[in-house]
């Protein structure tokens, strides 16, 4: 587990080192803004016995699958922010969620997971004392962050922790499974005119006539619209090069965005651009 954590941290730090100073500064600002919003929600949650009790009760009512899904969606939004700076052609990060109940729930869940990981004995106290225990833990953590100025380091830790907690909860998707491309990604695909004859649609094996409107995927491969649409309803990969389009499947989208981070990180570490 520790070896996997170190490997994940190394990949993320290497990908961050690939950013030029202006982009790194912009990313740091975006992360700081996001964390400030999360810390305000967490402070409100921990300072209100009623809100804390309601949120904790809501977490207890969720199945393990739904808890892991909360963390997966949180990880997805974090990875979206990172990959947008690493590769501006990727889908922009979604806006901060306006569903405060979901946000409060995932922040509390992550905090409980983190504290249990750092100090397994801490949560053996009665749940009535958890709010005060968590408040002290958050206060100490925030003090350390403000003294060391480790916003990017904390960002890396959030990604690593989310991935670890999802793995522990068994939320990870099955690698290599097929999933549909997201509706938004398909609707956004451009229609282009075929220039020059002789191009073949690899799905139907028929020639794409010159002057005909066809679909162009982000990898620039062309297909008949009537061929590619049924394909993308079942899988989010290009039939030619396996370039992956966004998907509405949470675990699949995490896998897709993580591949972007890994590619940049490995390229920075080893000069491996494959």
TrEMBL record:
EC supergroup of this enzyme: transferase
Key words, A-Z: Metal-binding, Zinc, Zinc-finger
Any GO BP: protein ubiquitination
Domain RING-type: 201-242
Example of a GO MF term: zinc ion binding
Superkingdom assignment: Eukaryota
Catalytic activity: S-ubiquitinyl-[E2 ubiquitin-conjugating enzyme]-L-cysteine + [acceptor protein]-L-lysine = [E2 ubiquitin-conjugating enzyme]-L-cysteine + N(6)-ubiquitinyl-[acceptor protein]-L-lysine
EC number: 2.3.2.27
One GO term describing the cellular component: cytoplasm
InterPro entries (UniProt xref): Znf_RING, Znf_RING/FYVE/PHD
Protein name: RING-type E3 ubiquitin transferase
Organism lineage string: Eukaryota, Viridiplantae, Streptophyta, Embryophyta, Tracheophyta
């Amino acid at each position: 587990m520790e070896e996997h954590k170190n490997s994940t941290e190394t990949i993320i730090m290497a990908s961050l080192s690939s950013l030029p100073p202006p982009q790194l500064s912009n990313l740091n600002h975006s992360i700081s803004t996001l964390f400030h919003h999360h810390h305000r929600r967490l402070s409100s949650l921990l300072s209100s016995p009623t809100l804390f009790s309601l949120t904790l009760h809501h977490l207890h009512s969720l199945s393990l699958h739904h808890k892991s899904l909360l963390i997966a969606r949180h990880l997805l939004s974090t990875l979206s922010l990172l990959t947008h700076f690493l590769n501006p052609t990727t889908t922009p990060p979604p806006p901060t969620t306006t569903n405060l109940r979901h946000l409060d729930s995932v922040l509390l869940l992550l905090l409980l997971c983190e504290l249990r990981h750092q100090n397994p004995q801490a949560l053996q106290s009665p749940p009535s004392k958890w709010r005060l225990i968590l408040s002290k833990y958050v206060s100490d953590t925030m003090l350390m962050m403000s003294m060391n100025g480790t916003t990017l380091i904390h960002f890396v830790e959030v990604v690593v922790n989310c991935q670890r907690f999802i793995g522990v909860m068994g939320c990870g998707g099955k690698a290599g499974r097929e999933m549909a491309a997201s509706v938004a990604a398909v609707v956004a695909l451009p229609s282009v005119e075929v220039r020059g004859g002789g191009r073949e649609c690899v799905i139907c094996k028929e020639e794409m006539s010159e002057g005909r409107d066809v679909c162009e995927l982000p990898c620039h491969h062309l297909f008949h619209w009537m061929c590619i649409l049924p394909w993308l309803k079942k899988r989010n990969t290009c039939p030619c090069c396996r370039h992956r389009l966004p998907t509405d499947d949470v675990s699949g989208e995490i896998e897709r965005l993580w591949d972007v981070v890994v590619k940049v990180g490995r390229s920075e570490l080893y000069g491996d651009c494959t």
